Amino acid sequence: MTRDITVDDATAKRLFEEMLRIDVFEEETKARFGEGEIPGFVHLSGGHEGSHVGMGAAMREDDWLAVGGARLIGQYIAKGVPLTEIMAELYGRVGGSNKGYGGQMHVADVDRKLYGHAATIGSGQNPAVGLALAEEMQGTDNVAVTTIGDGGTSRGSFHTALVFASYWDLPVVFVIENNEWAISTPSTSLSPDHLSDYGKPHKLPTESVDGSDVEAVYHAVSEAIDRARDGGGPTVIESRVARLVPHFEGDKQTYRDSEEYERLKAEKDPIANYRERLLDAGVLTEADVEELTAEILAEVEEAVEFARESPEPNPEAAYENVYQLPLYGQGE
Amino acid sequence: MTREITYVEAIAEALDEELARDDDVVLFGEDVEEFGGNFGETEGLYEKHGRDRVRNTPLSEIGIAGMALGAAVGGMRPVAELQFADFAATAGDEVFNQIPKQPYVSGGRLTAPLTIFAPSGAGIGAGAQHSQSVHSWLGNVPGWVVVTATTPYDAKGLFKSAIRDDNPVFFLPHKFLSEQRGEVPEEEYTLPLGEAAVEVEGEDVTVVATQLMFHRAKEAAEQVDADVEIVNPRTFAPLDTETIAASVRKTGRLVVVDETVERYGTQGHIANEVVESDFFSLDAPPKTIGVKDTPIPLSPVLEQEVLPSADRIAAGIESLF
């Protein structure tokens, strides 16, 4: 692991702050879920924060993010969706980004160019190719970044997306967050040395980076985005991270070796590592970190209050948004 | 002013006009460029509108449907062709889980104004995986507007509306009708989605039928000693229940014939809608007729056996009197 800081101070601070925001938000989410305030499932990002934030920071606001994998909340935050809207959506309330229709798996924010998760793992990559096609046909230089986990790469839909993206040479960056576990199935049982190797038959540029190093991800994704923006077509990046949390809250992780898990927690925590690096380099002081943490805690507390106070949807709303009405040609 | 053109020419005209009308329309699918589509439905479009607007794809319905969804969300108005309606199943997740649900789960924040069009139906000996009528599959997933076409007039007017509609629309022409000729206006027109058409007026019995079954119902009407009213639903989801019910209130009898299989097919749903709302206007139990509960066999003899024939429809009508 490099100890150098390879970005300017402002960027370094931003990267750290965003990772911390994900961490604090998710700790609170875990607590609220534990108290029964959040319905459904909750999948947390622990260990993925560097990957999410490095990727998010490499993107322009007008680039699409088509989120995938199972660890999503951190990606929503990295794309800039307000914490209030995310938390209210987790609560299933009207103040949520999707007014309570979507929940944890489906936060969608077209205005911020966040394409909501497909929820069936691996089905978001072809829409990402379509988003890239739309940008290209509209004459912009915006790109689409799409994420998937190691498990999702086993689905044919993922491979189809590579075929289509390379067939038309579209501006798409595929980021595979390989945390080595598809719930309980290890990615080490998959054949490629690196999951980015799946791009090789399509003659796409591929790269495998340490996804727990936020700067490494930032540089790799930036390079791929620049290439796509300049007409250089798709790239496949493997971001190797450790899953430092259960698959979902409540998963007992009986399939994991506990000593190995503890080792990963000690070695592959992107936030703890980066904090140390920034302190060593003098970019941040302990006091800065404390101050920042306090600010983010207040922000997250506000998000929880917003979610709690946001009304439950009117039951009648269940029938809205199924169709855009009137249908074409009616009522004219 | 009208002229006679074929059903597949009507489809090609609809595509041509919509590509010319709206720069956001993009057509893609397998073999839509020089090859011109399996039934000639995209002939000449690539030459006229160029490769940017008319695009061949690699062979994967997952890619075609999934990409259409993204392109629609991203601001285009994609028209994606599947060569056979059966292939809705080869893009199962996209067709059943993604496209019809994304606008809903986003709380209405995103729209997916895309059209998938795919020839459906039996009758050309294409076998079990190339002959199904899938509008009951699709109608079962709220979010899809499901449109079928019966005549060249329908095919052009409904397809143009499908492309312009802001919902995901599954547009299903019938492959056996490809060469059927019919009158189509010279001037531009569209037909409303979600509205059934009373195609033939009658007093004694309502027959609901579309696509090939509509034409067979017309034959059957000639054979029976009853004044038959024929209603063409055009859109199966959402269904124009009111036009059908109004017809039954007039005639007192209902036969629903469709090319979906009888088990959990469209026939039962349509009959049920009328039974629930207008039971006391019925003079006889509704009769439902569909494909027998088998896959579509290849042999023309076997294929015709399982499809509703004009005779079977005529017998169904007579059974109500």
* Unreliable stretches covering 5 or more consecutive residues of chain A: none
Give the class of chain B from helix and strand content and strand pairing: alpha/beta
Gross morphology of chain B: globular
Order of helices and strands of chain B: EHEHEHEHHEHEHEEEEHEEHEHEHH
Share of residues in helices of chain B: 25-40%
Taking strands numbered 1, 2, ... along the chain, how are they ordered across the largest sheet of chain A?
A: 2-1-3-4-8-7
Counting DSSP H or I runs of 4 or more residues, the number of helices of chain A is 10
**Count of extended strands of chain B:** 14
In N-to-C order, the SSE pattern of chain A is HHEHHEHEHEEEEHEHHH
The coarse silhouette of chain A is globular
Distance separating the two termini of chain B: 41 Å
Low-confidence stretches of chain B: none
**How many β-strand stretches of chain A?**
8
Percent of sequence in beta strands of chain B: 15-25%
Radius of gyration of chain A: 20 Å
| Rounded average pLDDT of chain A | 96
Please summarize the sheet with the most strands of chain A.
6 strands, parallel
Number of helices of chain B: 12
List keywords for this structure.
heterodimer; A: alpha/beta; two-stranded antiparallel ribbon; 10 helices; 42% helix; globular; B: alpha/beta; seven-stranded mixed beta sheet; 12 helices; 36% helix
Summarize the structure.
The complex is a heterodimer of chains A (332) and B (321). Chain A contains ten helices and eight strands.
Annotate the secondary structure layout:
The complex is a heterodimer of chains A (about 325) and B (about 325).
Chain A: H1 9-34, H2 49-58, E1 64-66, H3 73-78, H4 83-91, E2 114-115, H5 125-137, E3 144-149, H6 156-167, E4 172-178, E5 181-182, E6 185-186, E7 206-210, H7 214-229, E8 235-240, H8 258-267, H9 270-281, H10 286-309
Parallel strand pairs in A: 1-2, 1-3, 3-4, 4-8, 7-8
Antiparallel strand pairs in A: 5-6
Chain B: E1 2-6, H1 7-21, E2 25-29, H2 45-49, E3 54-56, H3 61-73, E4 77-81, H4 92-98, H5 102-105, E5 115-117, H6 135-139, E6 145-148, H7 152-164, E7 169-172, E8 181-185, E9 197-200, E10 205-208, H8 211-223, E11 228-232, E12 235-237, H9 241-251, E13 254-261, H10 266-278, E14 287-291, H11 300-306, H12 310-318
Parallel strand pairs in B: 2-3, 2-4, 4-5, 5-7, 6-7, 10-11, 10-13, 13-14
Antiparallel strand pairs in B: 1-8, 6-12, 9-11
